[in-house]
Please model this.
Amino acid sequence: MATPWSAVNVPPPTATPTRPAGVVRVRGDIDDAHAVKTLAHELGHLECGHVKDLPTYLTCRGRCEVEAESVAYVVAAAHGLDASGYSFAYVAGWAGGDLTGVREAAETVTKAARTILGRCNANTATGSDDLADTA
Model:
C-alpha cells in the first residue's frame, strides 16, 4: 500500500504535516540539508503514528518529538548527512533529561526509520523520487 503523503515548499513554520491534504509542507527558504532533515522529521511523525492520534500527540508531545527527531537523525545519517549538531540538542530539549524515555522510544524509532529507508532504497532502485511510490 502506498503512503498518501507528498512534500511541497511553503512559508514558515519549517514544516507541518496536514492530514486532510495529505501533504508534508517544508519551507522553501531553508538550505537543502535542513530541508531533507526536516522532511525526515515530519515523515518520522507520520510513520510513528503521531498524526493519526492527535490527542495523544498533544498530551505526549515530548515523546513524539523525541521519536520524530530520532527518526530524522537515523535517516539523515544513513544518507551521509550529519544532523547531530541539531538533532542531539532537539532530542535532549524535548526529553527533558528523561533518558529512560529516550531509550523506550528506540523500538518505535527503529521501525519507522527502517520503513522510510526501505522506501528510499526502493525508490533509488526504480529511479523514483516520490516516497509515495512504494510501501
Notes: The CA atoms of residues 9 and 28 lie 5 Å apart. The helical segments are 32-47, 54-59, 61-78, 84-95, 99-104, 106-126.
